[in-house]
Amino acid sequence: MHATVSYLTQTHLSKKFPLHTGGETLYVNGKICPDFALINTIKKLRVKQAIYKGDTLVAFFGSAFDLSDSINHDKIEYTENIFEINQLWEIFQKNGEAIQSDFDLITKNRKTQVLSDSVTVIGNRSHVFIEENAKAEACILNTKGGPIYIGKDAEIMEGSAVRGPFSLGEHSTLKLSTKIYGATTIGPHCKVGGEVSNSVIFGYSNKAHDGFMGNSVVGEWCNFGADSNVSNLKNNYGSVKLYNYAQEKMVNTGLQFCGLIMGDHSKSGINTMFNTGTVVGICSNIYGSGFPPTHIESFSWGGSEGFVVYKLEKLFETEEKVYERRGIAFSEVEKELLSAVFAKTT
Fold it and tell me: Per the structure, how many domains does the chain have?
């Protein structure tokens, strides 16, 4: 069935992620990851019906005007468990469950490409799925902890060792002798090397060299210099705190392992050391010796010795070159979006 997908989001994001309305529309809460059971329930919605899980609006069918008044419409209480993301750290914490669900959906009734004889598989070979034109040579794939998905035109280079659950996006590369511990997801058009554990790296971001990253979430268009490292465990083995933007303060995650949360377009120089529970905003450039602070504001340029504001014109010059290397234009829409965030945050 063909469907037009659009987004109801904040004003400064609406040009990049526009809302297309025409008659009745099906709205699904963006923090929800629907499984087969929830999808079947959503498909049965009639006009002005809403699905709730407790106080959470899960999905609604109707007009945008009706959506704002959905609490007064026909309410359906969903009794099954729901996969939802409420905190930043849940992106990596729940990633294994998400990979398994996506693997089942994407590979259902499909046939994988043939694995090279040079690849060693530990566990069930049927839990490895390779898309068209993907490459994997002389590497070790261990599926005992979960499935391994290799996207179209992606590559796992020689000497790499991967433990599932793991997902490698299309056109992405694991460089020579990369070590991956699940549950890890690498988005499209990424280059990753070194050692990565239980992390999510979104599209067009690179951690191409040696260095450790664990229990982390990295946005789009980020880059890590060689030997950048992320600590994911405090020396006293205590619970990790993270900066919370909504509350404008540090909050206790309750986690013993929690590394780096980095926003889009941020970068680190060589040998950068990120302390346990570091939050970096968007469009920041971190470099120098020593540990930078555990909260680095958006549009920051500097390191442990201090920061200055990363000016928009300098940022745009860099991003135009970054996008050009990928054959993509750095559009006016992107510039307007980043300018809007700059105005809100500096």
Answer: 3
